[in-house]
Amino acid sequence: LKRVVTNMARFDAAPGSQLQPAKVRYHQVDGNSLTIGHVVSKTPPPPGSTSFHSVEVVHAGGPVAERLRRAPRIDATYPVRFHELPETGCSPAREFAAIFEVLEGMMLAKANRQSLVLWVGRPDKPELDGFAGFLGMLPFRGISVALVSADAVRYPDPFSYRTPSGVLEHDANDPARMGKCCVSAMFGPLPARSFTARLREWAPIDVQPPAGCAELLRLPFKIAGLPLPMITYAGEYEKGVAALAERISAAYPAGSLCPIVSCGEVVDRLGYGLDVLAALRERGHAGHYFTHKSGETSKRWAEYGKPELLGWVAQAKAAGQTPLFIAVGGGCNGNATGVVAAMTGAAFVEVPTTPLHYNDATTSAKKAFSLVLDGKIRAKNLLGTFYLPRLVWCINETFLTSSTASVHSTVGECTKTMNMLADPSSAAGRADYANILGAKEFASDTTRILSCIDGFEALVHFIEDAPTREAKAAVLRLGEAIAEARAAAQCGTETARAAYASLCEGRRQLLQRFRARFYELPTAARVAIDAFLTVSNKEIVGAKAMFLAYEDPFEKYRALLFEYAHTLGHAVEAWLAGAIDTARASGVAADIVEAAVRNHGQCVGMAVVWAGAIAAELGALEGDGYVCHQGMVYLFNSFGGFSFGPVRALCDALGVSKPDFLREVLAGVRLDNKRGYCECGDDASVDQLVTHRPGRMLGSEDPNAEATLVF
Asked: What is the C-alpha separation between 293 and 577, in angstroms, rounded?
């Protein structure tokens, strides 16, 4: 009874900020006698463990690194691997590449979040010590770093550091990093001492909708107790862009801001990114425009670490301006652009143009690249960090240009959340999740989304309607012509610039006519679509806030429930993205290829069904509970968006057998970004499964895996 009362008190609590200033100890050592074992013994082990899985020694040459390499190993209880940082020559692009090249080697050697990165500095190049924090910041969004500095003049700062170019920088005192510090211990010739971070006040671009304003809606949301403005603009698109530019301009003095708008190929063709940049330029904030390839296989560091992009950041910093990355588009763009913003210490704003990016990706501080080698995704979201945007601004009308795959992807994530959480505002839900700190503030009924099936189907019908598809295709064709004309307009004649402006105006008019088609729908259809978007956004954002606001902002313990069905879903998604590229290049019939396309949330939705089947085989889920669990996906499958049949047809067209498919997918599972939370071998796993009914998850006696106290 005491335990139940204590847990209910946690559920009903109203805590404040959960940020805690980091503390790091500097140990005095003699570099001539230093051993890896001594560093390991003095470095705090990862949470929930008493030892390190491996030691990854990174260096740029020098006497200490060479001596450690040659020294005999006395304690062989953990593997030790050496990685040499490539020469960078103060080039930000080469620094960026060097960091990821080293980390890719670590990941392929199966380092995990219980590994230790040991940076060994050089006495003649103390400025290289700034690389240490980045090497620990990115794998699995943060693993432990021991910094061995040879600097005999000054102490390294464990919280604020930069690479020699000054472009890549990290400041753990910035609350956008949520107090995260990856340097766990420091070693060097100076006297021992301790360091404590000094967290600054959180300063988002705060937007408070005026009373009675129907166009602006702010969704309640917090991470680590920090309020994050999540704004929905329900009015006209062009007014929404202008309102966003006004809010950003009001937050920064004139001339102090350098906006860098980032978007993928599709959003570039739709013009959404250029519209935001143009609106800021009109308000005195000239900036830059960065485009990249779209799709999961392009969510890799090499696609974003371009010399011109990092050069713009360098120019802004040299001019005393604040670089502001504005990610306009879907989740891949937002995630990857967020990593670049975090690595350069830039401000960050997200402008999602798909429902899933809005209610899923932006509601997590996690930003990441995938491990992509030779065009194949080896593991999703393996290299990243935690970084909060200053503002999330969504213009509802941009959702109208979503694909049906994107809408299904949103629903797939919804079925995951409904099955793992159900209705935590109910008496049964409160009992299931009583140990979630401050959950009451955001707890509501996620299963309300089921009542919006009519709106989901109406939206898909609108997107798939032949005139709608042709209207969107016309916009994209013109957008492609605009992209080709842009370079000529930037450095060409007045005639070229006038022609470019005329093309842009033509696209604006086409988009206005496209949106007009939506408002020509029957009132009942428009109301149902609005209800589907409104309810799904509110419920999923609230569900994420219930865990991230106070209990688990870094998503390492109880919030891991949101990874339900993701391990297998990620692996299938990664395999399928490569298979789609191969099929297109091999000339497989377009109808077979396009039918097999499955976005992130669609693969999660399929994996929800597979997880339900596994739970049923284990006897954990049966009867009405099983029917309800599977039915949440089947209800939204009237268009076949969660059917595996088209994927099987693609396998047949490529000559991929069932054993081949399973082997490659399971290889992705074993490189999953969640490995290392719990101790288990390569052939073992820690399962996340629903038991008895939706809303109740299997528990674990492992405190690192514990999500809910159900046994």
From this structure: 14
